[in-house]
């Protein structure tokens, strides 16, 4: 359900003290927020308007005041109606200019005060950002990034120089992951551990600073999951911030926060204060334009505009930098997984295996919710005859020579099929594995069905898969 009101009290749940603050939200029929009221500031009220495509048109509020946005038909932001954007690459907006390379990656950004240079590796991952300030009295900043085989960032090192000399200490932050969620960041040997609202969510719940005598801080978030406050165990506000609609930090107040800044932003995003960019797992997000700095690694599977974050950031989230989802959907996993190789290592996150519901292994599969994996695909069918028709499976009721009734459906997470960032799957040989050619889409047995289903096999025969759900389909 949608979050309509949040009240924060101090004291125990049995005997709460007076209310500290409150938030109230109203929504339109598309689940986009249209109004927010804050009782801790009588003049703090926000209003949002959208067009028929759900794109954010305006925001009225205390900070930063009234903002308006203009869009072309492809969802690119414009300074003026009628501007032409080539290949969805925004080159100027609100006084800021961007430049791209032949791969569509942002290689330069100029905000009038500083020119930023971006460098990438062969996998299109950002490896270094170097600032070039126009004021020669300001230090130059160089930030480098390292990644693991799954494409997750594991360290960030920043270095400042002035007149060619090191200005201050070199600072390295290390990152520890739980799957594809940030579990810890370690700065100055102090671990900051993040806890989330549930096992699938990217919305932060708490931050634990240190190990032996840890400080615990609690997140208070917008309905979209963006943090706006942190409180300690006594309910005192230790950090609060106001952002633009597209996530740019506008105002920040920090009190007693263990000396470690709060850098979590929109779900799945981490603010790099040295560059102003948000690390978004498989890409980087630029809040100055509300877009990604690189094209989508999964191509058009993530949407027609390869740079777009979402039609609006208030009703949508993209925690992996791949494909947006509704911010009210707290339980679904991302649509795709992407290995370091990009498109060649991309798989939908959910797959389906259709098995025989009457053989000697069916009961064991149902009870254990696991089985050796054979042919599988990405389409979910509602009945056994639909699956047999698509996969061209021979079946006659009572005939012992039948291959399968395809009524035992196992749904599983394809993350199990990755090893060192590479999917361990292959396209099967045609004619039931006899060949000679490959058969990505079923077509070898037209006498048993229309075919056309995408099919894959695990590279290693007998690979055991754990199912999320096992059900028996109707005939």
TrEMBL record:
- Taxonomic lineage of the native organism: Bacteria, Pseudomonadati, Pseudomonadota, Gammaproteobacteria, Enterobacterales
Its family remark reads: Belongs to the RHS family.
Protein name (database record): Rhs-family protein
Species name? Pseudescherichia vulneris NBRC 102420
UniProt cross-references to Pfam families, sorted A to Z? RHS
Coiled-coil residues: none
| Domain RHS protein conserved region positions | 216-253
